[in-house]
Design brief:
The protein is mainly β. The protein has one domain (9-107): Jelly Rolls (Sandwich). Helix content is 0%, strand content 42%. It has strands at residues 11-13, 19-24, 33-40, 55-61, 64-68, 72-75, 80-83, 89-93, 100-107. It has a 6-stranded antiparallel beta sheet, with no helix packed on it. A hairpin with a 5-residue loop joins strand 1 and strand 2. The radius of gyration is 14 Å and the shape is globular. It starts with 10 loop residues before the first strand and ends in a 13-residue tail after the last strand.
């Protein structure tokens, strides 16, 4: 069993200033999936694009939007979102005062660019 939390040792910051906390990783022994907590600062957003892997997301904090190729949806705590592999998307914090935070589950090894040890 491994128990983690959000801390500077498992956090990487993206070029756009978003924080990714790696809570469960393959390095900890998870054979199939990894869990991250992503925090987008007020007024911030992720890059727009797609990944080969799917995402399972649960909104924890703040208000945001997800923008897709032909759609946009408002997001708030308590919602779950499935983003299929290859689906274009962007996470947007619509608040100017509060961070937008969500749990994101991805397949093991799906994202390596921004993972501890971190480098920009």
């Amino acid at each position: 069993m491994v128990i983690t939390g959000r801390n500077t040792e498992n956090m990487c910051e993206t070029r756009s200033g978003n924080k990714i906390y790696w809570l469960v990783t393959s390095e900890m022994g998870a054979p199939n999936f990894e869990i991250r907590y992503i925090e987008i600062p007020p007024g911030g957003k992720s890059s727009y694009g797609s990944h080969e892997h799917e995402h399972g997301v649960f909104i924890v904090q703040g208000k945001g939007k997800i923008r897709g190729k032909n759609e946009e949806h408002e997001l708030y705590p308590g919602l779950g979102i499935f983003v299929a592999g290859g689906e274009e998307h962007q996470w947007i914090n619509v608040s100017s005062e509060e961070s937008f935070g969500f749990i994101c589950v991805v397949p093991k090894g799906a994202e390596k660019e921004v993972k501890p040890p971190c480098s920009k």
